[in-house]
Batch of 3 targets.
Target 1
Amino acid sequence: MNTSATSRLPGGRNSTAEKLLVAASELMIERAAIEVSLSDIAQKSGVNAALVKYHFGNKDGLLLALLARDAATEVSQLEYLISQPISPTAKLRLHIGGIIRAYHQFPYMNRLIHYLLHESSAEAADEVSKFFVAPLLEFHRRLLAEGVKAGEFRKIDPVLFYTSLIGACDHLFFGRHAMSRATGVGPVTDEVCREYIKHMEALICGGMLNQKDQGAAATG
């Protein structure tokens, strides 16, 4: 990933920049919100708030670097997963679980994506598209093509697939507040995350059976 956001990521574990990112991440998790002030981040990190500008340019630059950091692990695993000598369906299941776990590990991630894509600058939106959206779309394109070639998947548009999977994650973690008000459901716990992975595996994999397999399932 060669973006200005990632170029601002800290190189050392004890760097000032990393302290700021860790503090911002912890505050967002504690408060279940991305609306944290620079003074709060500075106080939690023990770093002068003025250093945010030095390391990240401004608060949005810090948020962009935080999202790039958190997305990097999942994105870096895509090439590894696509190269594994396992079936496309097995890769698909692993990918579904990995994406949902990433959202669970960083519960503010989807809000950051929304904010940086739609409420920040055009430059920030371009960077999010480069280091998060584009790699995922390309991975989906390759995985779906591999599954069709192997006879495991019916032909599916990668953009629609991306929308379905990421949209499902987005609504679980972003729309949870609305659901809690309407139905009284609780927070996304580890158990909820595990059940959602099972649900999405069944839903997506079931819907991706090729026409031959669908006919066999219907007559069986």
Note: The CA atoms of residues 67 and 178 lie 24 Å apart.
Target 2
Amino acid sequence: MESLISFLILAVLEIVLGIDNVIFVSIILNRLPKDLRPKARRTWMFTGIITRCLLLAALSWLLSQKGKYIIPESWLGKGFDLASIVMLAGGLFLIYKSVKEIHHKLEGEDPATASTNQKPLGFSQAIGQILVIDAVFSFDSVITAGGTAKHIEIMIAAVIVAMFVMFTFSARISDFIMKHPTIKMLALSFLVMIGVSLIIEGWNADAAHELHLKNYIYFAMAFSFTVELLNMVMRKRQQKNVVHLNGPQLPVNSERNVEK
């Protein structure tokens, strides 16, 4: 019973921690041609499972590396171990990709010239970017697994179940984000904040845990998404209440002339 409870709790935690990963993957996959998206999504699922399982198998080694500085304190006045470097690099990469995507959306390129000026994202490029961020996010999930469950078999089973759940709903999440530009902008802003939290955690993990940064970020984004969903419901109701008149409509100038 204790193993079953730890398995269920860990599976739920892995799904919650994987939300930001699913959002990033959804945005990257939508830059691919439609015929390559299912293949890329399957590749992401299998590589994600393999990455997490390998990290779980090396969990004791990863924890032993904490405090063993790769970059000594004499260089920057502060030492950085393997986990810190991964967090810093992943945070910078996530901010760069998210800000670049926001800039692309806000610039509003001409659709007639966008196809000629912008090269479509290649399959290998998309998988490479997904693997980089997936490895960064895997650190959180692996550390959570190590602190929740006692047996590696339970950890691996919970990670596999969480990956299957994320894979099942990733297509729907992707379609929903792409259909609603404001939701996509919120998702990109959410990724920017996650990138900032990764940098803070990589620079000073103890301070990040004491401040509970991710809890604040998740709450803020949940509140923002709820408000936006309410706005979407209101817009749909307003569209239903709009009365459309049949027949030709006079332009504004013509109406003024008739009044004169």
Note: The chain is about 80% helix and 0% strand.
Target 3
Amino acid sequence: MKTFTPKPADLTHDWYVVDATDVVLGRLASQVATLLRGKNKPTYAPHADSGNHVIIINADKIALTGNKMGKELYMHSGRPGGLRRDSYAELLAKNPERIIRSAVKGMLPKNRLAKVQLDRLRIFRGAEHPHVAQKPQAFEIAQVSQQAK
């Protein structure tokens, strides 16, 4: 059996839109990471960039389970004294995009390809997005949060 290597002509980058309303953060991040890597395609190869563009709307309506509202998200700028920590509760109110981007980044591989794939992720707080011209397909995440019901 030969190893399949997709040719550059085989690599297509489709557009998907995901509604994050009442979806648990980890479930959303794992599904989005799969789409960004292109693992939903039959032409997937881990070394080739066959990933998709993903648009996440309603980022401020994600569901956080457990005691994550009291948990903190850390980020360092790389400069002395550049450690920044924000609680999930205040980030959900001010910058929910950072919560989702951090969760998706943690589920991508730690290599050069991950940055290219993460750049294809677009997160919007509301229900509107400016990428209507690309005709994104709707991607449904079936299981929503039990607390939202």
Note: The mean pLDDT is 93.
